Amino acid sequence: MASLKFYLKRVKEGRLQEMWRQTLWIYSYAKNNFWTVIFYTVLGMSQSLVSLGMAYVSKNLVDEITGYKFDGDLIKSFVIMIVISMITSVISQITSYISAKISMKVSCEISNDIFEKILNTDWESLTNYHTGDLLTRWGSDTGAISSGILSFIPNIFIYSFNFIIAFWVLIKNDWTFIIFAFAGMPVSILLSKTLLKRMVNNNKRAAEMSARLSGFNQETFSNIQTIKAFDLIKLYTDKLKKNQQDVIDMKLEFQRMSMGTSLLMTFVSLIVSNASYGWGIYRVWSGSISYGTMTLFLSQAGNLTTSTRNLTSLIPSIISLTTSAGRLMDIVEMPREDYSDNDKVTEFASKYKEEGVSLVLKDVKYAYANGTLVFEGADIEARPHEIIGLVGPSGEGKTTMLRLLLSLMKTQDGSAEVISGDGSKSDAEHITLTPATRKLFSYVPQGNTMLSGTIAENMRNVKQDATDEEIIEALKAACAWEFVEKLPEGINSMIKERGGGFSEGQAQRLSIARSLLRKSPILLLDEATSALDVATERKVLKNIMKDEYPRTCIVTTHRPTVLSACERVYAIRDKKCVVLDQDEIDEMSQVF
Ligand SMILES: Nc1ncnc2c1ncn2[C@@H]1O[C@H](COP(=O)(O)OP(=O)(O)O)[C@@H](O)[C@H]1O
Ligand SMILES: [Mg+2]
Question: Which end is more exposed in the chain, N or C (fewer Cβ atoms within 10 Å of the end residue's Cβ)?
Answer without folding.
Answer: N
